[in-house]
Amino acid sequence: MSTIRGARERARIEVTAAIKDEARKQLAAEGAAKLSLRAVARELGMVSSALYRYFPSRDDLLTALIVDSYDAVGEAAEAALPKAGDTPGPYPARWVAVACAVRDWALAHPHEYALIYGSPVPGYTAPQDTVGPASRVGLVLIGLVREAYLAEGLAVPPLTAELRPEAERMAADLADDLPPGVVVALVGAWAQLFGLISFEIFGQFDRLVEARELLFRRAVHELGRSTGLLDGRSAGAGR
Amino acid sequence: MSTIRGARERARIEVTAAIKDEARKQLAAEGAAKLSLRAVARELGMVSSALYRYFPSRDDLLTALIVDSYDAVGEAAEAALPKAGDTPGPYPARWVAVACAVRDWALAHPHEYALIYGSPVPGYTAPQDTVGPASRVGLVLIGLVREAYLAEGLAVPPLTAELRPEAERMAADLADDLPPGVVVALVGAWAQLFGLISFEIFGQFDRLVEARELLFRRAVHELGRSTGLLDGRSAGAGR
DNA sequence: TCGAAAGCAAGAGCAGTGCTCTCGTTTCTG
DNA sequence: CAGAAACGAGAGCACTGCTCTTGCTTTCGA
């Protein structure tokens, strides 16, 4: 399926990758606003118009970087799960580990994080290609909670009557073997997790919070509890 | 102190306001990336270079808009508090009301919201002028929780030993009459609140969540509980 | 009161951007 | 092997932020 036909196709793949690499470098250095097609081309020793053979527009290049970033953060989250052969820790600790992995990735790649979880820069609606990779972190969280639910049960968060239809719809979409109350709490926790990270990355905690990892762990642990993850102890912040 | 010296100063104030108004209009229409000094000047019937008498650079114009936006959302939050003469509702309901006011403002002004809570566009560090207005929403939340604490007490969230020094430092900075555990929970809830709003504004809930206000209210109510706000009932989502 | 000083709008111009079009050249393919 | 497709280079267009100079007007102090 992915056989390389000849020198031309091979060259195309390499040049495309080189463009993305150089663009990612400029993105990390200066941010998405300062990323310039001409500068990328210049750095690669080609003329700017040649670059349009590979990406039809600047927005398409950005979209490619967005997809890659979603994949990178998704991979970071997946890598934080216990590998086959490990003796996995308790579920709340795994939950915190995944969150910390996402946070670490964001701290290491702030501009890429801003690209995907900050203001949407290109158009206003995300292209279709991004929705798949965008959900990888969410899928990790869902998988983790599902595993906990099947293994040792959950403290199912209660649902109001008016929220129940929507909760059941979402549960059918996302995880039909999880109680709707858990799915609602999980989607909320997902958004709130990125709120914590965004505030830290975007400087909202400057001159306010010092021990950011400790605060993050405490909040995320609490977030795990709010989705029903059983804690052993009845309250308190774990590490 | 703010006496207007003459026609010149009056004109300057008016022109500055006109520039900001037009810029805000373009911001709302196309987003911060597309905001152009030349287009603003064109629309105002002046030449682009004249605009630099009022704002030294495009970033300074954006900074002015950022300050205004922080003020606007802060004002929206303050307006959601019970006015003098009202019979105020229970504290969890007030908490949810403030959060909903912020969310409503964000939905009505998505690009301005993105300007302040999305990726920081201009430099990378926020200018000093923004830190005051930026904290208004936070101050509303602090004030609300403090009032609840003094009036009817709080379920003080527990603190681990390693988090205690930081918690006490933050409490001394933000609200020295609140228990450190509450301050830590409050700062977390503050970030998580904007995580919920950002995910909705930035399209992360597209094709996923339908009844967004219901979900928001449930999560925010839970957030209030996590900071210690007493609920009456022991669990569940109120409105 | 009157002249210097400061504030102002206008225009030209510079360097940079995204993007399009054309024109030879190279590579693939029927 | 010839036609087709892909490619790199270059010129060019419309736009951007920003600077500098040139006159005009308002303000203010001697």
TrEMBL record, chains A, B:
It comes from the Bacteria. The keyword Transferase does not apply. Residues 13-73 form the HTH tetR-type domain. Gene3D superfamilies: Tetracycline Repressor, domain 2 (1.10.357.10). Keywords: DNA-binding, Transcription, Transcription regulation. Residues 36-55 bind DNA. InterPro entries: Homeodomain-like_sf, HTH-type_TetR-like_transc_reg, HTH_TetR, MT1864/Rv1816-like_C, Tet_transcr_reg_TetR-rel_C_sf. PROSITE patterns: HTH_TETR_2. The keyword DNA-binding applies. This is TetR/AcrR family transcriptional regulator.
